[in-house]
Write a structure and sequence with these properties.
With 207 residues, the chain is an all-alpha fold.
Length: 207
């Protein structure tokens, strides 16, 4: 059986994969190649079950939504209204308490890293399934990586905002969390095997 050789990736591309961060690590997809460890069948199942993506058109729509709007748009709207005379609390007690405690932090980045990091992993799954060509996948990944690098000052800051975005999403939807991101975050920030240990956040990104 013939197997294609792994691509030799540039440091910029490896940084882009590293920015998949917590979602990539949570799903054990690896940080060394564009193609995901889940393979074609597993990636299709993940896209269909968690993202409602079942073909190339829906993959493109999801990637565009994550890049242009995502949950960041809702965060911006809530932050703009919070505390004003016409502000009305939601019907979700835990989410209202979260806003009261974290509104200042939410206004710093509007959880854009939460959307862009997830976009990187969705682009990888979409490529692995065959919904997205390699060049298009890299284009989405590097555009998102450059925005992430322009928005944050360190991997630490990026990770904290991703976790903030996760809590914003799950509490606004009144979802419970069946896993803990903290263990993954600690591994990414401290392990010698983590791509965040190998690549400086300030790495010059090309293309």
């Amino acid at each position: 059986m013939w197997f294609s050789k792994p691509d030799v990736l540039t440091e910029s591309q490896l940084w882009g994969l590293a920015a998949g961060g917590l979602l990539t690590a949570h799903n054990n997809e690896g940080f060394e190649q564009l193609r995901c460890n889940s393979g074609r069948r597993g990636s299709r199942k993940l896209l269909s079950g968690s993202w409602g993506v079942s073909n190339a058109r829906k993959a493109d729509e999801m990637l565009r939504w994550l890049y242009d709007c995502g949950h960041s748009e809702n965060c911006r709207d809530i932050c703009a209204s919070y505390g004003k005379e016409d502000w009305k609390a939601t019907d979700i007690v835990q989410f209202d308490a979260f806003l009261d405690s974290h509104i200042a932090r939410l206004k710093e980045h509007y959880i854009i890293g939460w959307d862009l990091s997830r976009l990187i992993q969705v682009a990888r799954w979409s490529y692995t399934t065959g919904y997205l060509k390699k060049g298009a996948a890299w284009d989405w990944i590097m555009r998102s990586a450059q925005r992430i690098q322009g928005e944050y000052n360190s991997w630490d800051e990026f990770a904290e905002d991703f976790c903030l975005g996760f809590d914003f999403w799950r509490l606004s939807m009144n979802f419970g969390a069946d896993f803990d991101l903290n263990e993954i975050k600690v591994w990414l920030k401290t392990s010698d095997e983590s791509p965040w240990s190998r690549y400086s956040f300030s790495t010059e990104l090309c293309g």
